[in-house]
Amino acid sequence: VRNIFDTVNRLGLNVKTVYVGGGTPTILTEEQLEKLLSTVSECCDVSKLEEYTFEGGRPDTITAEKLRIVKKYGVNRISVNTQSLSDEVLKGIGRDHSAEEFFRAYNIAAESGIQYINTDLIAGLPKDKFSTFSATMDKILELRPHNITVHTFCVKKSADILRQDSHIYSITGGDVGKCVDYSQLKASQAGYNPYYMYRQKNTVGNFENVGFALEGAEGLYNVYMMEEVHSILAAGAGAVTKLVDYNSDNNGKIDIDRVFNAKYPYEYLSEDESEKINKAIMDHYINKNLL
Fold it and tell me: Is the whole model's pTM more than 0.85, yes or no?
């Protein structure tokens, strides 16, 4: 984190948003959270950020004390992700929490004073069907989170679930289309607007992922990333920096350079890796006269 911000400051770049995630950073201990977020505050004036997101992720890792620390360091957007409110579906996909635990975690987030709350759902999960998905959507809408992101189940090549069921992926998707349609209809009726969309390979039924938001509560990082409005500088093992150049003379086309961090922590934390990442970012801005 310090290395990335050192490069940002040397280049005189303006940081618009900070996003802590994906994965589940709330798995960190309170002491580890304090160290991480205090480091960000030392490197960046968080009061000037347009948005500061912390991905709470799994409800079973969220506590009131952790969110107190998160709020203390200026985070104004948090995700509390249940994926489904069917205990049978949650158990089937290996989630270590129940629907009851999600409501507990959501209440903690709502009482934390953090300005915006996002909740992720997934249509097309194994054992899920229209009746359970629609019930989940209805219950989430009753909570009135500021953002609701509806993903379509995507099967990763290395996913453990493929070892149990190699035929889990279905190109037709069963009633997933009905679930997606329901989410869009109900979100609209409840006053949510779709504000970003993206597709992934191997989604069930080849459907998309859509973010919905109440007016004025759009997740800005999601927009900047998906629309490739500006560069994303990534810290962490396996993370990918995306350097976007809108000042290219290449017939108005956008140039994008990617810098891939080492996958394993012991490699990522090496001095050589840090130098490689910083040099790639510096070279991009200096060689293309973007400063």
Answer: yes
